[in-house]
Design a protein that fits this description.
Helix content: 25-40%
CATH architecture: Alpha-Beta Barrel
Low-confidence stretches: none
Structural class: alpha/beta
Number of strands: 10
CATH superfamily: NADP-dependent oxidoreductase domain
Largest sheet: 8 strands, parallel
Radius of gyration: 18 Å
Strand order of the largest sheet: 3-4-5-6-7-8-9-10
Mean pLDDT: 97
CATH class: Alpha Beta
Number of helices: 10
């Protein structure tokens, strides 16, 4: 089982299963395997096209619903009041759930203000479709705008974060609002695992390179949602709470941040923080 990170009443397991890129039978089996292995946090999105398969995996696992923290996300094209409500209702139908634990705005709108879209998200929560609300890919400016307009606590900001992209200023801003920082692409799409500094630490401690980087994430105070469809990797990614990195190890991995490489940078992305 994973420790939890708390934010505005939400208790978010520090390791979750990311499902971006998983589809069909593979998605269902990965979710069921993860829950049987002890995961209690599953992350999906409308844009992933796999909510039905994720829901089936939850049911197949046999784990009681009230033990599982489920996150999904509303795409940027569906952030007006009526459209967001329809999208959230569609998500719940595909997942086979009465409510999700966390509903995120997946990407900020290029046409609607952060204030407008967070008010719409407030409305979805008040209708009981989500226990908590949050955002994803929000910059410091967008976080401040959203918080100035919201009536409900915004519990999380899910953003790209890995040793190549440390996001120190954004993480600090997220913490200032009392929010959890959730790292997607927490392993840098596995490229960071081949870095000599990571390999050296892994070899010395007797853990995998992925476990070392996920432990680095945890010691940074971040929730991580690594993706895998392989049962061995799924179990291994959860097994990071029996060891710790010392200050020298943390600093050595931090040093990779000078690369400043962003993996998920799309044309519809916001103007990132400098």
């Amino acid at each position: 089982m994973s420790p939890v990170i708390t934010a505005h009443g939400a208790a978010i397991p520090a390791i979750g299963l990311g499902t971006w890129g998983l589809s069909g039978k593979a998605a269902t089996e990965a979710v069921a395997e993860a829950l049987k292995a002890g995961y209690r946090h599953i992350d999906t999105a409308i844009g992933y096209g796999n909510e039905a398969e994720v829901g089936e995996g939850i049911r197949r696992s046999g784990v009681p619903r009230d033990e599982i923290f489920v996150t999904t996300k509303i795409p940027s094209e569906e952030l007006e009041d009526a459209a967001m409500l329809r999208a959230a209702e569609g998500s719940l139908k595909r997942l086979g759930l009465d409510a999700v634990d966390l509903l995120l705005i997946h990407w900020p709108s290029r046409t609607l203000s952060a204030a407008t879209t967070i008010r719409s998200l407030n409305g979805v929560k008040r209708r009981g479709l989500a226990r908590h609300i949050g955002v994803s890919n929000y910059t410091i400016r967008l976080l401040d705008e959203a918080w100035a307009a919201t009536e409900e606590p915004i519990v999380a900001n899910q953003c790209e974060h890995h040793p190549y992209l440390d996001q120190a200023r954004l993480r600090a801003a997220t913490a200032r609002h009392g929010m959890a920082f959730v790292s997607y692409c927490p392993l840098g799409q596995a490229e960071v695992l081949d870095e000599p500094v990571v390999q050296d630490i892994a070899g010395r401690l007797g853990f995998s390179a992925a476990q070392v980087v996920l432990r680095w994430q945890f010691q940074k105070g971040c929730v991580s949602i690594p993706k895998s469809a392989r049962p061995h990797r799924i179990r291994q990614n959860l097994d990071i709470f029996g060891f710790a990195l010392d200050e020298a190890d943390m600093a050595a991995i931090d040093g990779l941040g000078s690369i400043g490489r962003r993996i998920c940078d799309f044309s519809f992305a916001p103007d990132w923080d400098a």
